[in-house]
Design a protein that fits this description.
By secondary structure, the protein is of the alpha+beta class. The protein has helices at residues 13-20, 24-32, 49-59; strands at residues 10-12, 39-41, 44-48. A three-stranded antiparallel β-sheet has the order 1-3-2. Strand 2 (39-41) and strand 3 (44-48) form a beta hairpin. 5% of the residues are buried.
Length: 62
């Protein structure tokens, strides 16, 4: 059985929390501080993977 990995371009809030290991409250704090720009499609709030990766890169401690 072959497993296919799908590289998502956007994450829902729930997926972003699980994938990046941050809490829901912190995620919304980052959105309100304009550190992340959400995309609304209908009632869904989505976040770009590139934006999340850039946030992690900016936050990395050397």
């Amino acid at each position: 059985m072959e497993v296919q990995v799908i590289n998502k371009v956007m994450y829902s809030v729930k997926e972003a929390i699980l994938a990046y290991g941050i809490g829901r409250t912190k995620l919304y704090e980052l959105i309100n501080a304009r550190e992340l720009t959400p995309i609304k499609i209908g009632t869904r709030t989505l976040l770009r993977r590139d934006d999340l990766d850039a946030l992690v890169s900016r936050s990395a401690v050397a």
